[in-house]
Fold this protein.
Amino acid sequence: MRLIRLLQYLSSINHMMKFIFLFSILLFSFTSFSQQPVYKEFEVDSAAMPRGGVEYVARFLAANLRKPIQAASEGLGGRVLVQGVVEPDGRITDVTLLRSLRPDLDREVLRVFRLFNGWKPAKKDGLAVRQVVMYPVMFTRNAPFPYVAGKQITYYNADQKLTLDSTTAKYRQLMPVDSAGIPNGDMVIHERGRKGWQEMTRIPLVRRKVPEHGSVSRFTTWVGYKNTDSLWFDHVYGFNNNGILISKTAYSNGIPTGTPTYYHDNGVLMETDYVADGRTFFSSWYPTGQIRQVRFQEENISGKGHTEQLISYWEPNGKQSIVDGNGKIVFTDIDRSRIDSTRQVRYTEQGEYINGKKQGLWTGQYDDNSYTYEEIYDKGVLQSGKSQRDGKASVTYTEREQQPEFQGGRQGLGQFLANNLRYPSDAQKKGQQGRVFVSFIVCTDGTLCDYEVLKGVSPSVDREALRVVKAMSGKWTPGVQRGERVRVKYNLPINFTLE
């Protein structure tokens, strides 16, 4: 019995020693970088460099910097000099200031520089080593604006148009914001009267949690303002579970305007754009901050639609596979599984670009084997395609996407509205007119569902618009994606005009 206990004891000691040994290895792997010497640029054989090139570090910093509201209100600009250590795995650590500007601007520089972890490490004697790097970060000057006691102040004249003259302004808007300029309290609008500024209306700040599709633990919190019709206006900000900004969208009467800005979950900007030589260029980034691709859009000569070309593409390891619009590419992204739409899976697409446009055979594969496709392109134009969902029979197609359409096209839709729309008598008597925006889903059989009035005119006018839209159900040709019918959300404006 004693012998058995002794053997059990020795066995437990053996397991414990294995655990301690394994823990020691892990601890060493986490601390080994910090134990290595830190070299300067002139002490290594090849210096640490940002993957993609120095040009894109400057663009990354400029795109991700958010000037603190106090400094922005004063119109400040200037340079901050920052340094950090590029580790053998390409991360940046030990980020500190070499030249300060002022505390709030300094903190923002430290935040953004720590986000860039797309470095090619330095090499010495054939091995990746730690190296210190220094970088200047610029804040450009801007026009100052009123900001007092945590509130951004905007003035309007009697016609409710923006004015910079506070002495003649008729209205004053006070919007509480945090240090990054994001609203954090109720908006208050004052009107100037005989006794000075008097509160006219107060607009509560709205925080709305929206679960992510297919997840019970992840959600996005929308923060912004809604008007008296419960429609979003100004800007709406989205935050993830960790309180990190992941989106910013401009709204007007509940309708998004312009292109939304999206960020990765760690706060890195996904894509930015700029205009040069009549073209709109887009630069997109990996979560590490490394440049991913550069493409451009330009309007067609006909004025209908636009042409898009890919100029450059970098793989996650920094290798540039598309140069001046030419090369072969393999990239991955996330989409909903075609087996279970509540799950997201990775898919891989690959093919060749010639002069910025897709050429020849392109293939796509979902990791869970729920969906595959093959497509043939000629100078960016799809010639033929074949897709297969979850082992079912393949589907052929010649158009990648087709939007849903009312029977008879736009002319048929206009005729249907003209024949069926009835102007409510009470709205006519009150002189109520305007445009109603109705949102709905065009289902795969051409029926409609999930109706919603995004922007209304009056209760009776809104009801009439909704009644006519519901009468359209079954009269639509559904949307198609890669040869398969799909559900598509559609927004329809309906005009009510008194003659």
About this structure: Helices lie at 2-35, 54-64, 69-73, 103-115, 409-420, 425-430, 459-471. The domain at 405-496 is CATH 3.30.1150.10 (Fusion Protein Consisting Of Minor Coat Protein, Glycine Rich Linker, Tola, And A His Tag; Chain: A; Domain 2). The longest strand covers residues 127-139.
